């Protein structure tokens, strides 16, 4: 799958680490296939255990969809808490939102401080505005639900938004405890940490064949080298749909730009991350080198040619949307980077751990959704515990057979 095209930004901000190709037959307790956000978090958390771990990727390290990620980390999901309660019931939905809050805290307090370059992680609040007047009752209901269960949120009226941002939106929710980071640097740093703690890492090593019939899993790389593994984690992102199709998964096309550096933006309060109630939605953030990233304008196509043929048009539309929010940028802003990429969601709004009879002792980590990074933190810890102890009390939420309310 051709995951992303155009001129992506993050790979220009950081020289990745280099790892060898696999050229021999090896054994391990756990094989992680994939070095994006999902595989990197698995490698990080497993490096803290006594298990022998191998990570392989067919591309350069972290050059799947993680390099197209725009790096907004939020505890609120594309599917509101209110709507998640309708689908899964109060207990499961509130637990899922609490796990997203916890994942952000784990990242901030435990993971990032261990990394050599801190991943450009910055705690931020988010502004979630009503795209139209019609969305205000839904936003009010969501605010009431968030407060009822103790999630950190404020409700801002039109006047308050206007006095802090200049633009006029009917209402918004401000959430606390969110963060921005550089997703490419972060995944690279996680793998670097894991490698320093004993995880063997190989790039340009594509798994092309598996034999799950023996006691252990045998996986073969293109050049004939093999890996014998007790457990396998398929952290292969949206391409996992080509291995085993999850009918709950949906692939679409998404677009983003990173502008030229803009030093002063008078009306962008606290550099908050900005998003909206429309679906698909527009979102925006700033970077540590003073660029603005704005993304969205999703299209349903899964054809690479069609996705890529729209990159220039989407770039111009995103710039226009940015200037509508911040008219002072008109004439000063241009897109230094612009890209289109496949993006995975789920019909029911939750990410998934897939376990299949044909893949013994194997886990498919599918962090599909706009909160993919937060999901990969949650799911990688659950999978680590499933391997270590055979259970995790929250695993039921994310199993592909999860219980719905109806
Ligand atoms: C435009 C855009 C913006 C986004 N913005 C955000 C955001 O702001 N916040 C957020 O949290 N998420 C965001 N996401 C989602 C986020 O990018 C994904 O959730 C995340 O990158 C998925 O990581 P992954 O590790 O699962 O997949 P990937 O990064 O694709 O990693 C999978 C890896 O598996 C490897 N692989 C596949 N098959 C094989 C094989 N057979 N052998 C060896 N290796 C293999 C691939 O080469 C790849 O490197 C965004 C996505 C897009 C497209």
How far apart are the first and last residues' alpha carbons, in Å?
Answer: 35 Å
Rg measurement, Å: 21 Å
How many helices? The count is: 11
Instruction: Point out poorly predicted stretches.
Output: none
Helices and strands: which structural class?
alpha/beta
Global outline: globular
Oligomer: single chain
Each distinct ligand: flavin-adenine dinucleotide
Whole-number average pLDDT? Answer: 96
Strand count, sense and barrel status of the largest sheet are:
8 strands, mixed
Spell the H/E element sequence.
Answer: EEHEEHHEHEHEHEEEEHEEEEHHEEEHH
Compile the SSE list and pairings.
Blueprint: E1 4-7, E2 26-33, H1 37-46, E3 53-56, E4 72-73, H2 81-88, H3 90-111, E5 122-129, H4 136-148, E6 153-157, H5 158-165, E7 171-180, H6 183-196, E8 200-202, E9 207-211, E10 217-221, E11 226-234, H7 240-243, E12 249-259, E13 273-276, E14 283-286, E15 292-299, H8 304-309, H9 311-325, E16 335-346, E17 352-354, E18 362-366, H10 372-389, H11 395-398
Parallel strand pairs: 2-3, 2-11, 3-8, 5-13, 11-18
Antiparallel strand pairs: 1-16, 4-7, 5-7, 6-7, 9-10, 10-11, 12-15, 12-16, 14-15, 17-18
Helix pairs in contact: 1-6, 1-10, 2-3, 3-10
